[in-house]
Design a protein that fits this description.
By secondary structure, chain A is an alpha+beta fold. Chain A has one domain. Chain A is built from 4 helices and 9 strands, in the order ααβαββαββββββ. A 7-stranded antiparallel beta sheet of chain A has the order 1-4-5-8-7-6-9. In chain A, a hairpin with an 8-residue loop joins strand 7 and strand 8. The longest helix of chain A is centred in the N-terminal third of the chain and has 7 residues. Chain B folds into 2 domains: about 230 residues, FAD/NAD(P)-binding domain (3-Layer(bba) Sandwich); about 130 residues, 3-Layer(bba) Sandwich (FAD/NAD(P)-binding domain), CATH 3.50.50. Chain B starts with a strand and ends with a helix. The relative contact order of chain B is 0.15. By secondary structure, chain B is α/β, with parallel strands linked by helices. The radius of gyration of chain B is 21 Å and the shape is globular. Classes of the chains: A alpha+beta, B alpha/beta. Chains A and B meet through helix 1 and helix 3 of A and helix 5 and helix 9 of B. Bound molecules: flavin-adenine dinucleotide and iron/sulfur cluster (2 copies).
């Protein structure tokens, strides 16, 4: 599936997600399902919550007990494969990397998209971060319905149609 | 005629790293590039790079080019000539250059070629219509000269370049209507493919372009599905309207310069086509002629840089002016290359390098 369409299966997605108890605070969810020679996520994590071993090609694994949800790895990943997720009441809150030209502002209503780019619902932007260390990759905090936890991946402005 | 210890042809990541090491060893170094600015492919890359710290991972390509150039500024023994195309190399190591319509000659004791690769094109009906363009040219147009050639695009090829250029064009405001791939799997890293999919870009594997449609300029493309033998499946074609068609079906190493000196070469499919044969010191079959980077096998900037360092260290040794840290640096870069190639994506390269070595030994 992923090999042919670029869309991972639900099982793949679930294999990198944590349970709701663990997700009571932000945790890094890494969707890097292929052995590629890359490791900036692991090198940049200030608390060493990400392991890439035994080789540079191994896939990253997050230790949720160590991850503080600081979001440093989110803007570092060249594959835009890392987001933070948290469950709060009946909502899911994400911090996603974003590199397109559309701009978003807090309280803005947006479309929630799945991994195939289809609209699966609406969400609200909570914050937008563009710190210098992010090197032009924005981090957008979005709140969506908890039912979308394993489906949501990115956003699009509603005016866009 | 000016003379130098070493003439490095090509100022991409490989040539830039090589220039640094040659200069550190005290060689009187000339670095030539046909482009107005140094950096090779890097100057068109606005995305963050893969790899590890040593390969400037997470830094954007264009910024890596700047970092590599900064390392050269402190040396007085490097001469850099841009907009200078090497048009010939002769047996006495005279290098003939063309700069602003003027031919000049220089001479060097050793020559290191790091000229990179050229794009492959694809044969199909109407492939000469305006708005059909290679990925490299499209990047130059959009990322360097800031001209966006249309509103919509179809990309042929799902290797890393096809995927990355599609993403860059979306950042420039174009809509990518489809990515077409003849193989049954996406060629590039899946993280790049997923980035596009979530933005709604469809990727069609086992498909190819049948023809381009349009009279004065491109209006649409006809896409057709392929079976497992890459034969067209009748009645599966469909028309996708588009302003631009981008072709990204691979790169061929530029072996022509080393071939001018009759350096032995071989066609090695795993490395992208005809490549000069090399010994373990990146030396061609002609003593004093060295080569590295994409021109000896299509890989990545990460490996091109490591090869540039290594080839330069061997050039210094060849000229009896060994780099003071050669003993540590050579195993260090060898190990870096080993790590980079030690995965699924590197297996093909390793096979190609083995073939290149066997062909060299058989000569
Ligand atoms: C779209 C795209 C995305 C990429 N993404 C990545 C990535 O994420 N990570 C990664 O590691 N790599 C990436 N690469 C690959 C990387 O850019 C190349 O592997 C690398 O640039 C090769 O370096 P090089 O120095 O061998 O050749 P080049 O970068 O091609 O440089 C060759 C230089 O030689 C000069 N030259 C050629 N002929 C002559 C001549 N006759 N006279 C004088 N000068 C000459 C050219 O002007 C050029 O500057 C990407 C490439 C592309 C196209
Ligand atoms: S969010 Fe912070 S702590 Fe958690 S894995 Fe990423 S960098 Fe490490
Ligand atoms: S930085 Fe991103 S692409 Fe690289 S290994 Fe980490 S998750 Fe994968």
């Amino acid at each position: 599936m992923l090999n042919k369409t670029g869309v991972p299966t639900l099982e793949q997605v679930q294999s990198v997600f944590f349970n709701e108890v663990t997700l009571s605070s932000f945790k890094a969810v890494i969707e890097c399902y292929e052995d590629i020679p890359c490791n900036p996520c692991a090198l940049s994590c200030p608390v060493k919550a990400i392991t890439i071993a035994p080789t540079l090609h191994s896939q990253p694994v997050v230790d949720p007990d160590v991850c503080t949800g600081c979001s440093i790895c989110v803007s570092v990943c060249p594959g835009l494969a890392i987001m933070l997720a948290k469950v709060q009441g009946d909502t899911a809150i994400f911090k996603i990397p974003y590199e397109m030209n559309e701009t978003f502002s807090p309280q803005q209503k947006v479309y929630a998209l799945n991994r195939s780019g289809e609209i699966i619902g609406e969400g609200v932007v909570l914050s937008v971060s563009n710190k210098k260390h992010q090197n032009k990759t924005s981090i957008i905090e979005v709140q969506v319905d908890k039912a979308l936890l394993h489906d949501f991946i990115t956003i699009r402005g509603i005016h866009h149609g | 005629m000016r003379t130098y210890d070493v003439c490095i042809i090509g100022g991409g990541p490989s040539g830039l790293c090589a220039a640094q090491r040659c200069a550190e060893a005290g060689l009187n170094t000339l670095l030539l590039d046909r482009s107005p600015s140094l950096g090779g492919q890097l100057i068109k890359q606005t995305h963050k790079f893969f790899g590890s710290k040593e390969h400037y991972a997470k830094v954007r390509g264009i910024d890596i080019a700047k970092l590599l150039q900064e390392k050269l500024t402190s040396f007085e023994n490097i001469t850099i000539l841009t907009e200078t195309t090497v048009v010939g190399i002769y047996e006495d190591f005279v290098v003939s250059t063309l700069h602003h319509n003027q031919y000049k000659k220089i001479q060097a004791k050793a020559i290191l070629c790091a000229v990179g690769a050229s794009e492959k094109f694809l044969a199909f009906e109407n492939n000469d219509l305006p708005q059909i363009i290679g990925a490299g040219a499209l990047q130059t147009l959009v990322n360097q000269t800031h001209v966006v050639p249309g509103e919509t695009m179809v990309m042929i090829g799902s290797g890393n370049i096809g995927l990355i250029v599609s993403y860059q064009m979306m950042q420039a405001g174009m809509k990518v209507n489809a990515i077409i791939e003849a193989n049954d799997c996406i060629g590039g890293y899946k993280v790049h493919a997923s980035k596009l999919r979530r933005l709604g870009v469809p990727i069609h594997t086992k498909s190819t372009i049948k023809k381009a449609i349009g009279t004065d300029k491109l209006e649409a493309v006809e896409i057709i599905q392929l079976d497992e033998h890459y034969q067209e499946i009748p009645n599966t074609s469909r028309i996708i309207p588009t302003d631009v068609l981008c072709i990204s079906v691979g790169l061929s190493p530029l072996h022509q310069l080393t071939s001018m000196l009759n350096a032995k070469s071989a066609y090695i499919q795993e490395l992208g086509g005809w490549v000069p044969l090399l010994d373990d010191t990146y030396q061609c079959s002609v003593p004093g002629l060295f080569a590295c980077g994409d021109m000896v096998g299509i890989e990545e900037a990460s490996s091109a840089m490591m090869e540039g360092h290594l080839a330069a260290l061997h050039v210094c040794a060849y000229l009896n002016q060994s780099h003071p840290q050669a003993a540590e640096l050579i195993p260090y870069y060898e190990n870096q290359l080993y790590e980079l190639r030690n995965g699924v994506h590197g297996a093909k390269t390793l096979k190609g390098i083995l073939k290149r070595k066997e062909a060299m030994n058989a000569q």
